[in-house]
Structures are given as structure tokens and as C-alpha cells.
Amino acid sequence: MALSSFRCKFRETSVDLLTDVLIDLNNRNKDQLNSVSTCNHNLRDKRVTEYILLITEELRLDPLVGYHAVELLQRFMVKHLTDLLTSHTPQDAAADRPTRHEDAIFDEIKEKFPIIVFSCVQLASKLSLHSHIITNSTAVHFLHSVGLSVSKQTLFESEMMILKGLEFRLNSPNPLTYVESLLEVLGHNEPCVPVERLHDLCCHVLQFVSLERADVYDSLLKTTTQCVSPSREQRHTEDPQPLFFAERSLRQ
């Protein structure tokens, strides 16, 4: 999968602003880890991530849009499914037939899911400073090209559903944001390092890690815990320290 050729400008951020950015990202990362849902990993399926990155590439969007869309999709689906599954069970799907109620919910989501995925990409494009916005006309044409007949009204309703589900809070950090922030620190601390070239390399590595996330994280976990079969507690323990150390090194 090829990567879009978007250029990042490094070494243009002041130390004070970069320090504030790192502190903010570190705090938000900690908050996210403390409130992470147990079903989050199921929504980072390789096929879904690849689908989003392919859409981003096909529409020639900034790679940042794709990673942002993955975050929006995960957050929305966790909230949406939780609301649907914990809402009042209909009379015909009461205690004796709860499975049918869940199956009906998942069947309904399955039909809407491709549009929800695309709407997350479209919303992410509207938040990007370095990418053109996906208009509804472009969206309808693209979806038609992949075999989905969708009206502009349907797209609008899908976007509104996601916006309301996320309570209009769309500015969530994504993996590429963290990578670019750490590269900015490296460029500040080591002016001779070709961070622009490293950025291209990091994008390829990040894409690989995102697509092979389960295997990569499992291997890292076994290495850090020195345990062939890590416990459930070990699997749920993550360390958000890299940003903290980056911020300390920047101050020095």
C-alpha cells in the first residue's frame, strides 16, 4: 500500500508551544487509557484499518485523516453499541430471548457499517488542515464506484449520528499525531537529524504496526513481561511514559 506524499514542516514550533503540546498529549493519553473499553481491540480489526487507509489513499488525503478516522470510528462504535445493548430491551426480546435482540442490533449495524466507516473518513477530512474536504458529491461518486448506492441525505444523517454520538468531540489524538510530535522533539534536540526523511520511514512503520497491531503488541508484551502467556492484568496494563520523557528532554 503506497503512502500519500504529504510534506510536514519540522523545527518551526517554539519550545514553549511544543512543551504544552506534549503535556496535553500525555495527559489525554493517560485519560484515554484509564477509560478504555474492553471491546476496543475488536474495533481495530486489520481489515477495517486497511479499508480506511485505502480510502484515504484513493481520495488522495493526508495520511493523518486515515488515522484520525480510525480513532473516530472506534470511539463512536464503542459508544453506539454500548447504548444500543444497554438500552431498554423490547418486549419481544425480553429475558427469554436476549440473544435475538443482540443479533438484530448487530444485523442492523452490519448494514450501516460501510457508510459509518466512510462518514468517519469524511468527518476527519473536514478537520484536517493539510487535506481537501470530501464533499458529498465526491462521497456519493466514490461509494457508487465500490458498489454502494447512497444518497447525500443518507450521508448527512450518518455524519449527524456520529457527531451526536461523540457529542461533537472530534479532536482526539491519533498515532500519527504522536509520531510527528516526537519527531519535532527530535528535530529540536538534534538539528542535524534528517527528521523529514525519518517521517517517511515512520509513516511506513506506523502503517505496518497499525495493520499488524495484534501480532506486534503481543510480541512486545511477551518481551517486556518475559512471559510466554501474559496474564489478563498484564495485557490491560500500558505505559504512557514516552511522551513524559520527551517533554522532560525538551526542557533540558
Structural class: mainly alpha
Roughly how many Å apart are the termini?
39 Å
Estimated helix fraction: 55-70%
CATH superfamily: Cyclin-like
How many domain modules? 1
Task: Output the CATH class name.
Answer: Mainly Alpha
Low-pLDDT runs: none
Q: Main sheet?
A: none
CATH topology: Cyclin A, domain 1
Helices, by number, come to 11
Task: Please tally the β strands and state the result.
Answer: 0
Radius of gyration, rounded? 20 Å
CATH-defined architecture:
Orthogonal Bundle
Mean pLDDT: 81
SSE pattern: HHHHHHHHHHH
C-alpha geometry: globular
Measured by DSSP, the beta-strand proportion falls in: under 5%
SSE layout and pairings?
Elements: H1 15-34, H2 46-58, H3 63-86, H4 98-127, H5 136-145, H6 152-165, H7 175-189, H8 195-211, H9 213-225, H10 232-235, H11 241-251
List the main descriptive attributes of the protein structure presented here.
single chain; 252 residues; mainly alpha; Cyclin A, domain 1; 11 helices
Describe this structure in words.
This protein has 252 residues and is mainly alpha-helical. It has one domain (15-87, 99-235): Cyclin A, domain 1 (Orthogonal Bundle). The protein is built from eleven helices and no strands. The chain has helices at 15-34, 46-58, 63-86, 98-127, 136-145, 152-165, 175-189, 195-211, 213-225, 232-235, 241-251. Helix 1 runs antiparallel to helix 7, helix 1 packs antiparallel against helix 11 and helix 7 (175-189) packs parallel to helix 11 (241-251). The longest helix has 30 residues, at 98-127. The mean pLDDT is 81.
